[in-house]
Amino acid sequence: MNTTVTLRHGLKMPIFGLGTWLSANNGEAANAAKHALNLGYKLIDTAQMYGNEGDIGLAIKQWKEENPTLAPPFVVTKLKGDAHEQGSVTRSLQRSLQLLQMESVDLFLIHSPSGGRCVDTWKEMLKCRDQGLAKAVGVSNFGVAQLQGLLDAGLELPEVNQIELHVWLQQQDTRAWMTNNEIAAMGYCPLARCKQFGTTEAARMAESRNISEALIAIRWSVEQGIITIPKSSNVERLAQNASVFDLDPLTEEEKKQLNKCDCGFKASNSVNSMELPWEEVSGGDAAEHCKKE
Known about the structure:
By secondary structure, the chain is of the alpha/beta class.
């Protein structure tokens, strides 16, 4: 649970945390976050488009009051697609910080290249970091061509790219490019929304170990060095997911079998944004794609 990934500029980011997509801002997200923190989770992932930053901020504030001697969690939020206009990046982050009740966020990501104006938006993201509004900045749902586009524009590369990543969609080529360019991989949908359970060797492996297939998927992810954020609002499942670090490591044979599970399955429409042409998203307005998120 204390394992971290060191980002390019030295910031240590927990390898395991809580995803909050579809956790409602009516107490559900707050309860999930607080239970997760009590279980020892070190990272909370949210986003402007999730609409639950207020809940997350409240949960963290209450937890810190109850645990004043413990280090606060690492918090990630993401720029909404309709906030790519000039000046909107900074204003939207300031609004997020108000909701989160924080002076700065640990990691701020462009949620998707589909918002358009990626060059100017990324420049303003870097300014937000330099102004101390975020400790690190990165992107989400960016493919190799889009990352290369930022590099070709003479810009510093993101420290993190959050993409759909799981044993059924392993993104080997993208991850290799990111590794070569010191971009940490953060994976959402690590369970593929359970839509591949029972279909591959992962199911048989879980049965032989007498554990859930979810734990097999999470164990594969963290052993790959992927920052992993399974989503749940259920206290029992939060605890079960966290127990992944109590498991024996995967054997070399198990790793080989799990590598064969990669079938290109996509659990989210958002991942398709990785394939958008760079010329379409680099400078123009592609906000209509955000409706598919």
